Amino acid sequence: MSAKANPVEGDGPGPYIYKVGVPPKQNLFKEFMHHVRETFFHDDPLRHFKDQPKSKKFMLGLQAVFPVFEWGKTYDLHKFRGDLIAGLTIASLCIPQDIGYAKLANLDPKYGLYSSFVPPLVYACMGSSRDIAIGPVAVISLLLGTLLQSEVDPNTNPNEYLRLAFTATFFAGITQAALGFLRLGFLIDFLSHAAVVGFMGGVAITISLQQLKGFLGIKKFTKKTDIIAVLGSVFKSAPHNWHWQTIVIGATFLAFLLAAKFIGKKDRKWFWIPAIAPLLSIIISTFFVFITRADKQGVAIVEHLDKGINPLSVDQIYFSGSYLIKGVRIGVVAGMIALTEAVAIGRTFAAMKDYQIDGNKEMVALGTMNVVGSMFSCYIATGSLSRSAVNFMAGCHTTVSNIIMSIVVLLTLLFITPLFKYTPNAILASIIINAVISLIDINAFVLIWRIDKFDFVACMGAFLGVIFVSVEIGLLIAVCISFAKILLQVTRPRTTVLGKIPRTAVYRNIQQYPEASMVPGVLIIRVDSAIYFSNSNYVRERTLRWLTEEEEKVQAGNLPGIQFLIIEMSPVTDIDTSGIHALEDLFRALRKRDVQLILANPGSAVIDKIHVSLLADMIGHDNIFLTVADAVASCSPKLVEVV
Q1: Bond preceding residue 239 cis, omega within 30 of 0
Q2: End-to-end Cα spacing for the chain
Q3: Which of 2, 267, 278, 400 is most buried (CB neighbours < 10 A)?
Q4: CB contact at 8 A, 465 and 473
């Protein structure tokens, strides 16, 4: 559409009225392919290969799959220094977290360490984020543990449970990589920010409540995750089944961890204090339990942690049978949530450092690392918010920090794991509570309430679903409310009445601008959405209702009757067959009331379809204008504008 197309001189002296330009006819196949490219290849991923020799194309292709070959060319000692410090710092944080997170997934602690060894190495070669730190996270660990436990009891069938965990991890990776290869990453955006905030907050409370078992030294504890069952289990065992020595250990070190976190937030230069606090807590508590033999007095300890690196687990993955379907279902759900968290973290830190990450490459990298990880005794790994924040503040430059972390974890698996034997479970509970409490973002809850009440309903629906029912139900509620919001916005678009701003030729919403005055005899409606089959009937009916309401006001005030209805179509980005039929029906309904339908400023896609459908012939080519001001100026000369 061009503003310079088809100038038509008005009657007598006055400004030119520009008619709406019709775009030139295009090849339908080419137009279809253009839409496909914009949908799936909007970033033009092959632009770097254009006009390049074959030798360079191979290297560019290698860099596209393995970004390490791109940034590795400029890697130097200065960057390595920053990555070394960052890698050692996040390693001190990840080791105690991994042991605790594995317990959330109902797995042996060693699998948490395994999952911080292999996946970060794969991601370091394929990932495009410089700051993200890879490993197990609390939310995914709890979600995976809950979903797996509903299928297999980890106590009575530990081998089947472990195999199902590897199977779910494999298919989580396949899901993530497939989304990247097929460029379907936009699907993860359907889970709204508000729903994610509520889900994360609910999971944080659920995880914290689950830790009361280790924190209070309770031996018999419910397997359910809802707040009623957990608190019931806690208070039924109180106080005779609570272990006071365990409570003292847990409370003391939780206070220490919270104090360390407070110091780190108060001054950024002290970021390393909360980073090393968890490992320091494990070292100190393990030492005191060992020298006092507190385990003999009832303090629950880790007891055993196997030494050695990841064993192969390819033969443990189910590729047939009933467990295959279960593994696929669990893997798809957990993989999507892991992907959502990782991409959000990557984008956040990329924005802070002003660089771009390729979402589809990220999905392929995350998927590949989980597929490979499932073959080396790992469960689902993703980007960790707490570790990524520490990685960022420690001054990392590239994903080499993940490699440093992996090397430290490897050394831990080879030499240090036996020393964790006397680590009290209360410390692991304290570390997890300290890690997940930051997921409860009160400020985000308040901001969502202020901005959008429907978003707040989605947020609270996910939050309450997680804490009062289960993690999977909370997730289902979050997804359903997110889709409900999309459907509501699509099926019930906003329509507003426009008025003329005094001393201008500008027409705006009369509710937003009370000083805007309506033109006598003219009703101006704006539709703030594309007109599709899902909302076409609503747009037609709502427009007629606006007309009926305005006619009632006109009759009550003895004002000139409505003779023209102008639809401002600049926000209407597209229209389909149902939308065209709705406008045709609207035209016929208005004609019975002696009201002329006029269209103002339809976009190129819309005006093209209006002409192809012959709707323009029905309405009249002279009743389609470039602006509302032009449309009003061309209405009946008997109309008197209110200035």
Answers
A1: yes
A2: 31
A3: 278
A4: yes
C-alpha 601/C-alpha 498 separation (Å) is 14
Q: CA Rg, the chain, in Å?
A: 31
Whole-number Å distance between alpha carbons of 132 and 136: 13
Phi, psi of 641 (to 5 degrees): -75, 140
Nearest in space to 569 (alpha carbons), one of 531, 611, 595, 535: 531
The token pair that represents 8 in the structure block: 């038509």
Query: What CA dihedral angle connects 363, 364, 367 and 368, to 10 degrees?
Result: -150
Cα–Cα dist 598/566, whole Å: 5
Do the Cβ atoms of 55 and 364 come closer than 8 Å? no
Give the model's pLDDT for residue 18: 66
**How many C-beta atoms surround the C-beta of residue 585 within 10 A?**
15
Please check whether residue 173 is in contact with residue 368, taking contact to mean a CB–CB distance below 8 angstroms: yes
Look up residue 531 and give its two tokens: 């007109």
Strands 596-600 and 624-625: parallel
For residue 600, what is the enclosing H or E element? strand 596-600
Contact 630, 18 (CB under 8 A): yes
Residue type, 623: N
Domains of the chain: 75-487 (no CATH), 494-633 (3.30.750.24)
Q: Chain centroid to CA 196: how far?
A: 7
Q: Confirm if 566 and 631 have CB atoms less than 8 A apart.
A: yes
Classified as helix, coil or strand, 382 is: strand
Mean pLDDT value across the chain: 88
Residue 206's closest CA among 433, 497, 515, 425? 433
Alpha-carbon gap, residue 608 to 593, rounded angstroms: 28
Q: Which two tokens stand for residue 311?
A: 């064993």
In angstroms, rounded to a whole number, what is the distance separating the alpha carbons of residues 455 and 474? 15
Q: What pLDDT is recorded for position 93?
A: 92
DSSP result, 74-107: G--HHHHHHHHHHHHHHHHHHHHHHHHHHHHTTS
- For 289, 532, 609, the CA distances from 576, given in Å and listed in that order, are 71, 5, 8
158 burial (CB, 10 Å; 0-12 / 13-18 / 19+) is middle
CA angle at 586 for the pair 584 and 589, rounded to the nearest 5°: 115
Question: What are 525's strand-pairing partners?
Answer: 497, 567
pLDDT digits (tens, 9 = 90+) for 302-354: 988 888 999 999 999 999 988 999 999 999 999 999 998 898 898 888 888 88
Cβ 123 vs Cβ 342: under 8 Å: no
The sign of the dihedral angle between the CA atoms of 470, 471, 474, 479 is negative
Q: Tell me: the pLDDT tens digits for 229-247?
A: 999 988 887 777 788 999 9
List alpha helices for 517-603, DSSP H.
536-556, 577-592
Q: For the whole model, what pTM was predicted? A: 0.82
Q: How far apart are CA 505 and CA 498, in angstroms?
A: 12
